[in-house]
Structure formats: structure tokens, C-alpha cells
Amino acid sequence: MSEGNSVILGMNGVTKIYGDGDSATVALDNIEFNANAGEVVVIMGPSGAGKTTFLTIAGALLQPTSGTVTISGEDITNMGEKGLPDVRREKIGFVFQSFNLLESLTALENVMLVMTPDRARGEAGKNRAKELMSIMGLNHRLHSLPKNLSGGEKQRVAIARALANNPDLILADEPTANLDAKRGREVMLLLRQIAYEMHKTVVIVSHDHRIREVASRIVWLEDGTFRSDVETAKDPVCSRVVEVAGAPQVEHIGVLFYFCGEQCQKIFQATPEKFSDAAAS
Amino acid sequence: MLLVARKNLFSERTRLAISVGGVALSVLLIMLLLALYRGWDEKVGGFVEASDIDVWVASEGAKDFLAAASLLPAGGQEGQQAAQYLDSRSDIEKWSQLIVRQMEGVKVEVEGEGQEKLGKEMNLQYVGFDLETGLGGPIEIKEGRGDPGANEVVVDEALDKRYGVGLDDIVRAGGTDWKVVGVSKGGDFVATQTVFVNHEQAQLALKMEEKTTFVVIQMTDTADIQDFRDTIERNSPELVTFSREEFATNTRERVLSNVIPILLMVLGLAFIVGLAVSGLTIYTATVEKQREYGILKAVGFKNSFLYRVVLEQSLVTGVLGFVIGVGVTFVITLFASDFVPQFVTYVRPVDIAFVAVVTLIMSAIAAYIPVRRLASIDPVAVFKA
């Protein structure tokens, strides 16, 4: 594990273009990004902004068209398919929106499965998995199958799995999107705990405004580039963070409300009193 | 075994049962067909091999025991000259004439004065052998006597199993009623069974006075059999000679040459059935778990690991199917011939090993297409909710 404020995830001049010629689409455009050990970076932005592309390049799942990507100081840009799986397994922990646990394995087995052979050997692997499950407050769920776990429990198992190989970097894709407010908050606090107490770098891609609460910093990704001059607001209907400029808006009792789209705007207009108090809070 | 492979396999019990059942059925079919082939091979060639005859002499055109389309002089000047020649040779231990003819027969039961009940028609390999030398006679006597006299016959035990012909019964064949005085072993040719009478009785019944089908010869231990055969064929071009092995092989071919292509075709079909069932179930299981394989790829597992998972599932299915298939084969072969007498089987260890290899090949092929699909899974897809 890297110590201090060392850069764990570094992206220099990263560009990703899908297709070529007239059909070429620029998903990321000359991105500069650093994430340090012990911080939680939240990446927000509208749909189609390039968030998933960013995450998959950061996760060593996709190679950029140009630029360099480093993880824990190691340049992974030109690593072939032979080397990238080892980087993913040893240096990165993934937390997905839909949990992505293996359905036929118990919670404990899901955590143990991803361990590298040297970690998984003998009782040590099992003990490590149990310890992580204990940190996640899931001692009583070790032998439960995913189908018998609640959404919050599944996500906590997924976080334990992400930590199984003690990686420097945790990448989370909409980790609270499938959870209710209470479970979502539990997961957010867990991610913060991981960054602060375990000194991991946690990079979260999310639409959820609640996640701001745990962020060390928030960056706005739009049209493949990071923007610093973005004014954002919370959509009172779906709770998404939206860019104020260009968003549909409604004035109610002297306050301007912004929406991610026309559908949320219409829902709000039908019963504004239902949402305005929550939004104000 | 890999945890994921084991869990995937045993978490879907119904699919596992179908997959294992398909392989087991395939193994069962292949094993049974091989066992049947071996059983027939053993039965059909066994009589000739077990006889003490080193050289079979026949007229040109005859080549095996079952068709027996040979006619040789047994008396007259020609016959006497032949006998003198054979008697004069010091390398011949003994020789005799042997009559063989296929015919139909029935068991006759006398129910009252002038009333009789006829049993089912039987395909018989009617053999007239020389009682003195015993060459071409019963291989082993199980019950009664092995030296049939006038209007007496020794029947193979298979006739008892199939038609209920036993000691003291009457068999009508070739226009003569024969009383069963002995029951022998080793004369079952599956499609036909041997009945033995003495040579003179056969000549009389078949109106073959001074004729015979074969001359059968037992050579001394030091005799040069090939040299003897060459001499016979050189001096008498109208004759053909066969060693014991050749004659047994020709007899087998008479029956099995028509069966082997069918057996091979059914063997191929059985293989395809097993392959299709196991392949399809492994494939559907892989497609169903496609997202999970994508997750494994995303979190850092290499394709080789995923291939092993699928291959192990396929191999475990194959091994379970093989064990069940072989087990059921043994059970069936133990009892089948009691119900269907023609179901003569013989399971050889080498055939079990062969089927084991076939099952492994089946499992490997069944895993091939799913493995190719795994290679094309894009781990990025798991980021989609």
C-alpha cells in the first residue's frame, strides 16, 4: 500500500475515441486526473459524459487511445491482456452498482474467490475474508447466498470482496444507486471509512447527491472533460445532481428547482409540496 | 476442483441431472453395443477356436462354418484315396469327416396317441461328427452323453434357454425325430445353435452317403501346418484349406461383417447424443452465467481460469455420466440375456478404457464452444446495471 499523499491513480492526457472516421466518438478528451491515497473522489456528470469510460480505463479494463494511466506508480497504459488482469486483481477493488456477486457462492466464498493464490492459501485466506466480513458487519451472513441478502448486505459483501487483495485503489460505480436512503448512507460511510482508516484511494462515479457527504473532492465530467466552473443542484424528485445551466427549472414558493429531465419536472409540478420541503432540507 | 465450477454445477441440480443423464445414456449405448459386439464375436468364432481342429479342408468356394457350402467325397475311389493319403502322413494326429448344414427344426411334444404339439421353429447348425475322433463335436458336455447314437442328438444349452429343449426331448429336423441325449456348451452362434449327431446318422438323414462337408484334421505338435496346407492345395486345386484362426475369422465375418457398419453408425449416434446433451447443457449454463464470467474477468481473472471452470464442469459431468453409464451397463448385461437370449454380451476392460477415453473427448468437445464464448465476453459489460 502506498503511504502519504502519493498518487495512486494518475491519468495524463488521456483520450478515448470510439470508432473512427465520421463515426468517431470522443468519450474522454485529454483528461488530467490524480487521486491520492486516503481520499474519496466523486466523479459526477450527466449521462453520456464519459464516466463509465473513465472508470473502465482507470480499472485497467480498457486502453486509452492516447495518454498514460498509472496505478500505484506503475504505468499500465501499454500493458497487454496478459498483464492487465493481474493489475485488476492485485491493485484495484471494484464495487458495482448491481453488486455483481456470484449467485452460487456464499458471501464468504465470494470474498475468498477473488483472493490471489498467495493470499487464499490455507486458513489465512479464510481468516482474512472473515475479518473483512466482520468489518462490514456481516459476521452473521458468512454462509448466506446472495439471494438471501438484502441490497445493503450485498453491497457490503461486494466491498469486502473489493478489499480482499488489499488493493490501493477502490473504484465504485454508482454504489448507492440500488439502495434505499438508509442502506445507501451506510455504504457511503463505509467507503469513507475505507479511504480514511485503511488509507485507500476511493474513486466513485455517481449521480447520487448524497454521496457528496463523504467526498474529499468532487469533479464534474461532461462531454469527456473535467469542468471546474459548474454550478450544480439537486433534482428534488430523483435526487440526482444536475448542472444548473441548461437544466429544466421550476419556481415554487420563491425558490428555483432544477431537474435532470422533463419527466422529473412534470412529477414535481403535479405535487410540488411533496418535494419542495425535502429539497429545501 | 475449482470452487466456482463445483458450485455452478451442483447449484442447478436438474440441469446437472439432465447433463449427467445424457452422458450416461451415451456411455450406456456405446458400452452395450461394444459388449454386444464382443459377445457375438466370442460366440460366433468361439466354437471353431475351441475345437481341436488345426486344418479345415473344404471344396472350393466354402470359407466358413456357418455357410458350409462345401461338398467333398467321403467314399468311393476319391474318398478312399484321400483317406489313404491322410492316414499315410505322420504329421497328422487324427482326422475325420464332418457334416455341417443349416436347417430348421422343431421341438415335438407328444400329447396323446397320434397327437403331438410342435414348438417354435429353431435355426439349427446341424453337425454330424465322427464319434471316434470327436473332431468338430461338442466342446463340453453339460448334461447327459456326448456320443449320440441312432436317432439321438446332443443339443447346445442355448436351445434350452431359448426353446426349452432339454434332455429326453424330441427334436424334429431333416425329416427325422432325434432324441436329446446330451446338452453341450460352446455351440451358440447367436442366430443359430449347434445340434450334434454322429456322422453316419447325418449321412443317412441328409442322404449324403459317400459325401461329407469338411475334412477336419488335427496335426501333431511338430507338424508344419502351412506346408501341409500348401501340399493339399497344390495337389488338389479343387480343395481349399483353412487354419483354425482363418476359419474362425471367416465365420465371424459371415455374421459380423453385416453388423459392424450398423454398430459403428449407432456408436456414432450415441456419441453425438451424449455430446449434444452435455454440450447443450454446458453451453446454456455458460450463457446463463455469462454475466458472472464477465464479473470474474473484470475483477482480474484470466481467460485461462474461466476455461478451466467450464472444462471442469464438463469433465465432472462426463465422469459422473461415465460411472453411471458403466454401472447400468453391468446391471443390464447381467440380466438381459435371461430375457432376450440373443443379447449376448461380454464387457472387456479394454472397452471400458476405450469408452472412458471417448467420454473425455466428449467432455472436451462439449466445453469447446462455451469456452469460445467466454473468450468473447467483454468485462466492461458488468458496469451496466
What would your notes on this structure say?
The complex is a heterodimer of chains A (281) and B (385). With 281 residues, chain A is of the alpha/beta class. Chain A has helices at 51-58, 84-91, 107-113, 117-120, 122-135, 151-163, 181-197, 262-270, 272-280, and strands at residues 7-18, 25-36, 40-44, 66-71, 74-75, 92-95, 169-173, 201-205, 217-222, 225-227, 232-234, 241-243, 249-252, 255-258. In chain A, helix 8 crosses helix 9. Chain A is globular, with a radius of gyration of 20 Å. Chain A starts with 6 loop residues before the first strand and ends with a helix. The model of chain A has no long low-confidence stretch (mean pLDDT 89). With 385 residues, chain B is α+β, with helices and mostly antiparallel strands. Chain B folds into two domains: 2-44 and 258-384, no CATH class; 55-222, no CATH class. Chain B has eleven helices and 13 strands. In chain B, helix 1 (3-11) packs across helix 10 (303-339), helix 2 crosses helix 7 and helix 10 packs antiparallel against helix 11 (349-375). The radius of gyration of chain B is 30 Å and the shape is elongated. The mean pLDDT of chain B is 91. The chains are: A alpha/beta (281), B alpha+beta (385). At the A-B interface, helix 1, helix 2 and helix 3 of A face helix 1 and helix 9 of B.
